[in-house]
Amino acid sequence: MGKVVLGVAVAVAVTTCAVAAVVVGRRVRSRRKWKRVVGVLKELEESCETTVGRLRQVVDAMAVEMHAGLASEGGSKLKMLLTFVDNLPSGSEKGTCYALDLGGTNFRVLRVELGGQRSSILDQDVVRQPIPQQLMTGSSEDLFDFIASSLQQFDENAIDFEKSSIRKELGFTFSFPVKQTSVSSGILIKWTKGFAIKDMVGEEVAGALQHALDRKGLNMRVAVLVNDTVGTLALGHYHDADTVAAVIIGTGTNACYWERTDAIIKCQGLLTTSGGMVVNMEWGNFWSSHLPRTSYDIELDAESPNSNDQGFEKMISGMYLGDIVRRVILKMSQESDIFGPVSPSLSMPFSLRTPLMAVMHEDDSPELTEVARILKNVLEIPDVPLKARKLVVKVCDVVTRRAARLAAAGIVGILKKIGRDGSSGITGGRSRSDIKMRRTVVAIEGSLYTQYTMFREYLHEALHEILGEDIAQHVILKVTEDGSGVGAALLAASHSSKSVDNIQLL
């Protein structure tokens, strides 16, 4: 009997040891898997590091590239395009002006009543109209005739365009690649956003619209042809005379600023009555070896239709941030089964959009329920443990923080170029306390900045770190909504007194 009991005891002990070994083995493997996933995060944090020193290097690089782009065509990744907008709204504009905003599959018509004093918009009306699909691939005449007809019907009870003896000024915002030739003319380089009207490529854009207006008997003149960034600067300056630059950070990103004409070396002999001109930087194409690029950025760029272009945009704009996060989560899934089997949605480019990434990032619920919901419904990753959800939030934070801090460095780069950063233009120099800083306003627009709280906070934080508190207090980022519409109308009003351009090339 004793031997039987002893045998049972030995068997139980062996079984217990075996079970314990299995449990310990599972824990060890689990720890190894978790360690690999944390390693992916740590590598991401190191690759995305944006110390103040590094950001100041980006600032210097931006200023240098701006100089190079102004010195010669093709001298920089920054195109530094002349807009021929040589005066900004002063507030003295009075009366009715119109704007047409064509930026995609919809267009808008605006009517703005100005009161003759700064920031005195008495009234404004807006009508949004979809463009029929067939007109996006038809002829230029059909497209612009349709737009002119819509303009003709707009507010027809308030004004009879055909019988009016007073010519109305129209600002035309055209958000497609254009080579500007004057303040009111530009050549279409190529269509984007689903348009493919072959007979328009290489042709003058504002002229095509003007011909359509004339055919409809509308007594209107296309006074300015601009992009949305220039419109934002115009509206910002109308509200605040200290506005010197404008930045859009949304799905895409761009910036423009007011430059002295004598600094635009590639157009020697350029004269304007104001002594300055708005320059469209096209800063999305900025590149520098100081930008903290990761393997995920490299893969995203290689797989994009415009590889080796828009490098800055791909690191800071809303089009791409969500997909960078998706790629990191995919790498974590490949390193470990912490997220379960790799789902088809997780492997699909751009399946995670930036607005949803922002929701995950700003989820402050104890169980991170929004994170769980988006992982399940969008990326098809169900039953993610809480510690893994926390990891996802951290990934969102790293990617967003890098983007916002780089955007801040870009803004300071502009300020440095025009001597508004407190360093007196000293490359690599820190802000000087003996420089008297002028109040400097940057108009800013775009959903990434206006709607993503953490992005905005990180951008402001970096701006203060780069400039220092003494200088940063003089720099104001001011949200300026609808520059692409109202700003274009204001520019039409500010250029309405010109029968000819006040710009000469000697």
Automatic annotation (TrEMBL):
Topology term for the membrane: Single-pass membrane protein
Q: Which domain of life is it from?
A: Eukaryota
Q: Does the keyword Kinase apply?
A: yes
Looking up InterPro entries in the UniProt record yields: ATPase_NBD (IPR043129), Hexokinase (IPR001312), Hexokinase_BS (IPR019807), Hexokinase_C (IPR022673), Hexokinase_N (IPR022672)
What pathway does this protein act in? Carbohydrate metabolism; hexose metabolism; Carbohydrate degradation; glycolysis; D-glyceraldehyde 3-phosphate and glycerone phosphate from D-glucose: step 1/4
UniProt GO molecular function: ATP binding; D-glucose binding; glucokinase activity
Task: List the Pfam families hit by this protein, alphabetically.
Answer: Hexokinase_1 (PF00349), Hexokinase_2 (PF03727)
Q: What is its main location?
A: mitochondrion
Can you say where in the cell this protein is located?
A: Mitochondrion outer membrane
Which Gene Ontology cellular component terms are annotated? Answer: cytosol; mitochondrial outer membrane
Annotated Gene3D superfamilies: 3.30.420.40, 3.40.367.20
Positions of the Hexokinase N-terminal domain: 41-238
- EC numbers: 2.7.1.-
Which key words are in the record?
A: ATP-binding, Glycolysis, Kinase, Membrane, Mitochondrion, Mitochondrion outer membrane, Nucleotide-binding, Transferase
User: Ranges for the Hexokinase C-terminal domain?
Assistant: 245-493
**CDD domains with a match to the protein in the record:** ASKHA_NBD_HK_plant
Give GO terms for biological process.
Answer: glycolytic process; hexose metabolic process; intracellular glucose homeostasis
State whether keyword Oxidoreductase applies: no
Q: Which family does it belong to?
A: Belongs to the hexokinase family.
For this entry, the protein name equals: Phosphotransferase
Q: State the organism of origin.
A: Herrania umbratica
Q: Gene for this protein?
A: LOC110412327
